[in-house]
């Protein structure tokens, strides 16, 4: 029986090639996008699940409670030892300190190989907590020893080529010589912990005294603490027992810590602590459902429209004994064949698109991802689900046709049903398309606003260049002055980071004007020399720049500090006394600059102080003349290499750095553009199929209208007026829905655009134009056809 269904279905599809092609192409695009989105979502859901006992591994994080609650995925340096020694909740506890792009080199002086690598400092329990695969290691050696490391295979190959790297040594940041005691397989992309070299924690003392200490005075965001808990622990109870650590180790701090435990497998999808926003996965999944739904709607619309032309076929089958259920399954078989062809093409689309998809989203999905059990099950469920969803309603509609009316030729379009359903489904297509267009416009506007808005500082034509650690002040200032003397350089400064740099950000407590207590809020440090304000064109609105001396005696603050202190004017700050960093910095305020965005637009503007402190100068900011960029950059590189010949020269432009802060949003925008275009294209395929069918049905009517004096415009209006009504209804439904979801998305930003009425108007008008363009070809062709041909048979 099933074989017979397939045969008849195949003949029907060959008979109606155009409509079969439209259905297959629409479904194939829907399937292809659905499969890519499935791989994307599955990749994010599978983070960190490869570790043994992953359910028992937790990261300890901190809620910092001052005037606001801030979430920090780190703990004070002294926390790990306290949790290990003072409590009995964990089997193993490990600390990890991450550093991006540190220079590593071979130990030869003249021909040493140099490159940058992501490194981490950790202790001997690290590999007892995490199940990273080791390929080889030296016996009786561990990370308890200083200056030892495990490195990945990629690191070893880059450093030593084909040589056996076990037991070899490399130099870190031209300071410490590190011996390789073990080799790891490259870490999976779906691992929260990333890095190429894992160095013993004791080695860190040579690079960072604060993190390597047992201090409780603050938090470095790169220092993480993980623990393997004993089975069946009560997490709420553990968190409550950690509260006394605050009063014991931080009794005077107004920044009250609350230490929380975060299960390893939940880390990646927790945006409060730097993970991916899980709402993004829901949005991507919903978009995939939208695209497949639009393709199914096309199928249903075209199939129900064809019910009238297939009425005699159905009538004959019923007279010859065909039952309704037989006819239903016959149509399901046709749908299955179409879906199967579409699925095969969709898999090919996925296969071809996967490399580009990986590039856009920084993934490493391989072709093997298409052959996993989970993916195969998803594909089979997708095939069955679409076949039933797209085929059921048309199957029921065809099966209920009355054979007497069908065989006598007295069947009307209204007798086949489906007219109202088609209108509802076409409206649904328009609703989805309008929502996606609005989302694309809003996301694009917000990103454009964030990247191009006035940030309160100059970001154009400014080169940011790293300063090697432990460089003496005389060398820093000497090279800065040489940069400034270049013809193509307008100004240069040495600083901890740029005004909008969210990395190297240092927050500290503040005492104002000899008050006995610290303020409830913290203040961010932008440590820099006296050229900082002019280089980045910060606007001095009160007082003057600070004067540099051997110690910090003067600071410049932003006007946000006056707002937080409740002062009427920034002028009131001038001459006031400040104690910062626990009293280690005592200075007066010499000037106030206008507010600038010290972080991205998701965060508010913080109180900031600017002061000279050369041990925290990590970068040069060099303002250049954009007219001769290449020559100036070459001169800067030459000078830098003269002073730091053993370090890698690497720079970036500040405007590009600012744009990178919105990399996730840029990817979201790219995806929105792609899927909005596909949704519109698939909808247009369906409209084209529908209008082709209607034109064929109304050929004689058009001929009569033309004979009776009907104009081409009148005939065109005959086909388009219903669609105008449906677009208007769709716009009325889609606009509040799109506004609700996009307004919620914008609430993630402290500084955001408003959603103007014209955004919805553009989406509706755009859909209208696209719809007219889609149906006009067939409609105009029918309107200008010779009526004699269509009426010849009458």
Automatic annotation (TrEMBL):
It is found in: Cell membrane. Residues 286-401, 674-787 form the ABC3 transporter permease C-terminal domain. The keyword RNA-binding does not apply. PROSITE patterns: PROKAR_LIPOPROTEIN. It holds the Pfam family FtsX. Keywords: Cell membrane, Membrane, Transmembrane, Transmembrane helix. It is a multi-pass membrane protein. The chain crosses the membrane at residues 20-41, 280-302, 327-355, 375-403, 424-444, 674-696, 723-742, 757-780. InterPro entries: ABC3_permease_C (IPR003838), MacB_PCD (IPR025857), Macrolide_Exporter_MacB (IPR050250). It comes from the Bacteria. Its main location: membrane. The keyword Transmembrane helix applies. Residues 21-241, 431-614 form the MacB-like periplasmic core domain. PANTHER family: ABC-TYPE MACROLIDE FAMILY EXPORT SYSTEM PERMEASE COMPONENT 2, MEMBRANE COMPONENT OF TRANSPORTER-RELATED. This is ABC transporter permease. It comes from Aquimarina gracilis.
């Amino acid at each position: 029986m099933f074989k017979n269904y397939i045969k008849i279905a195949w003949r029907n599809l060959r008979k109606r090639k155009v409509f079969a092609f439209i259905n297959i192409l629409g479904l194939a695009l829907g399937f292809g996008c659905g499969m890519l989105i499935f791989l994307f979502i599955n990749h994010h859901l599978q983070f960190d699940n490869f570790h043994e006992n992953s359910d028992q591994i937790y990261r300890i994080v901190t809620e910092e409670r001052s005037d606001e609650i801030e979430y920090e995925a780190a703990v004070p340096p002294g926390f790990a030892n306290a949790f290990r020694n003072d409590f009995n909740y964990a089997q193993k506890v490990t600390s990890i300190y991450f550093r991006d792009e540190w220079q590593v080199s071979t130990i030869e002086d003249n021909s040493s190989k140099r490159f940058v690598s992501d490194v981490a400092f950790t202790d001997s329990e690290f590999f007892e907590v995490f199940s990273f695969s080791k390929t080889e290691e030296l016996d009786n050696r561990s990370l308890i020893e200083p200056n030892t490391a495990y490195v990945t295979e990629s690191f070893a190959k880059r450093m030593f080529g084909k040589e056996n790297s076990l037991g070899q040594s490399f130099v870190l940041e031209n300071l410490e010589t590190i011996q390789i005691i073990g080799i790891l397989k490259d870490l999976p992309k779906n691992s929260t912990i990333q890095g190429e070299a894992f160095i013993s924690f004791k080695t860190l003392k040579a690079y960072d005294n604060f993190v390597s200490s047992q201090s409780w005075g603050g938090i470095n965001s790169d220092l993480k603490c993980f623990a393997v808990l004993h089975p069946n622990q009560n997490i709420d109870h553990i968190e409550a027992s950690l509260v006394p650590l605050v009063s014991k180790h931080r009794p005077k701090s107004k920044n009250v810590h609350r230490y929380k435990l975060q299960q390893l497998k939940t880390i990646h999808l927790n945006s409060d602590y730097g993970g991916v926003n899980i709402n993004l996965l829901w949005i991507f999944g919903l978009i995939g459902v939208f695209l497949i739904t639009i393709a199914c709607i096309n199928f249903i619309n075209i199939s129900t429209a064809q019910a009238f032309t297939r009425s005699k076929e159905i009538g004959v089958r019923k007279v010859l004994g065909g039952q309704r259920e037989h006819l239903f399954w016959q149509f399901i078989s046709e749908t299955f064949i179409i879906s199967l062809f579409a699925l095969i093409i969709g898999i090919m689309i996925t296969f071809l698109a996967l490399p580009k998809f990986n590039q856009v989203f920084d993934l490493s999905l391989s072709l093997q991802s298409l052959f996993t059990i989970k993916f195969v099950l998803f594909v089979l469920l997708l095939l069955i689900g679409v076949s039933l969803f797209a085929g059921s309603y048309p199957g029921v509609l065809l099966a209920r046709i009355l054979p007497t009316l069908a065989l006598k030729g007295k069947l009307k379009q209204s007798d086949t049903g489906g007219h109202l359903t088609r209108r509802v489904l076409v409206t649904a297509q328009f609703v989805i398309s309008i929502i996606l267009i609005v989302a694309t416009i809003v996301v694009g506007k917000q990103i454009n606003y964030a990247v191009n808005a006035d940030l309160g500082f100059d970001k154009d034509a400014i080169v940011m260049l790293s300063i090697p650690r432990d460089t003496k002040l005389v060398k820093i200032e000497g090279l800065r002055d040489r940069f400034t003397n270049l013809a193509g350089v307008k100004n240069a400064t040495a600083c901890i980071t740029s005004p909008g740099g969210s990395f190297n950000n240092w927050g500290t407590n503040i005492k104002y004007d000899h008050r006995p207590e610290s303020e409830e809020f913290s203040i961010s440090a932008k440590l820099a020399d006296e050229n900082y304000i002019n280089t980045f064109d910060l606007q001095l609105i009160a007082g003057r720049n600070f004067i540099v001396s051997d110690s910090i005696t003067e600071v410049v603050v932003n006007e946000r500090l006056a707002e937080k202190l409740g002062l009427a004017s920034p002028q009131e700050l001038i001459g006031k006394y400040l104690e910062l960093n626990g009293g280690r910095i005592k200075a007066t305020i010499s000037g106030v600059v206008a507010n600038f965005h010290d972080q991205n637009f998701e965060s508010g503007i913080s109180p900031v102080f600017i002061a000279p402190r050369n041990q925290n100068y990590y970068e040069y900011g060099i303002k250049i003349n954009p007219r001769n960029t290449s020559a100036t950059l070459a001169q800067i590189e030459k000078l830098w290499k003269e002073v730091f010949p053993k370090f890698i020269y690497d720079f970036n432009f500040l405007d590009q750095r600012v744009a990178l802060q919105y990399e996730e949003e840029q990817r979201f925008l790219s995806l929105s553009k792609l899927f909005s275009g596909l949704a519109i294209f698939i909808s247009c395929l369906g409209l084209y199929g529908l209008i082709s069918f209607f034109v064929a049905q109304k050929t004689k009517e058009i001929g009569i209208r033309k004979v009776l004096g009907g104009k081409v415009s009148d005939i065109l209006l005959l086909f388009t007026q219903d669609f105008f009504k449906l677009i208007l209804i769709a716009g009325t439904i889609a606009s509040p829905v799109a506004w609700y979801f996009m307004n919620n998305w914008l609430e993630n930003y402290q500084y955001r655009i408003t959603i103007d009425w014209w955004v919805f108007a553009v989406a509706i008008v755009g859909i209208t134009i696209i719809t007219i363009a889609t149906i006009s070809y067939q409609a105009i062709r029918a309107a200008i056809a010779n009526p004699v041909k269509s009426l010849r048979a009458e």
